[in-house]
Each structure stands twice: as C-alpha cells, then as structure tokens.
Write a structure and sequence with these properties.
This protein is α+β, with helices and mostly antiparallel strands and 81 residues long. The protein has one domain. The chain is built from two helices and four strands. A four-stranded mixed beta sheet has the order 1-4-3-2, with no helix packed on it. It is globular, with a radius of gyration of 12 Å. The termini are far apart.
C-alpha cells in the first residue's frame, strides 16, 4: 500500500473518475489500484491522480491510502485547500 498525505488530493471532494473504487475513511480515502494500459489510464484515471497511480503500480501496490496524517512525497504535486 502506498501511504500519502491528503495534501496530494486537489480538494475535499475530488474527481476520482468513473471507474475508480474509492472508500472514504475518517481522515481521507483509500483507492484500489490496478494496472492499466496508457489508453485506459488516460480514459479512466483523472489527470491529477495519474502520476501517483503510475508510481503505485510501479511499486506493486494495490491500494493508495490518502490520510491527513501521512507524509507528503516531493515527487507529487501538493494542493492547498
């Protein structure tokens, strides 16, 4: 599982795309990751999430946990909301 701060999410109500499984928790979200072709990635995963998604797949993760108390990662954009 990749664990990241909610600072890497663009808003309190982000666009997760149509086919992304997301579970809310008290301090953020958990999303389920699966390998996608480049075409599927661009058609399924919102642009803001793609770099994180690609890195999660590269690291063999099946989940991304966005939690307010988790660390930020300098590889990914930080949003201020």
């Amino acid at each position: 599982m990749m664990d990241l701060s909610t600072s890497h999410v663009p808003s309190e109500s982000p666009d997760w795309g149509d086919d992304i499984r997301v579970i809310d928790h008290d301090f953020g979200w958990i999303i389920f990751i699966f390998n996608l072709s480049d075409d599927e990635l661009s058609g399924t995963v919102p642009e803001w999430l793609r770099p994180i998604w690609i890195e999660a797949v590269r690291e063999d993760c099946i989940l991304i946990n966005f939690d307010r108390d988790s660390d930020t990662d300098p590889k990914f954009r930080i949003w201020h909301w």
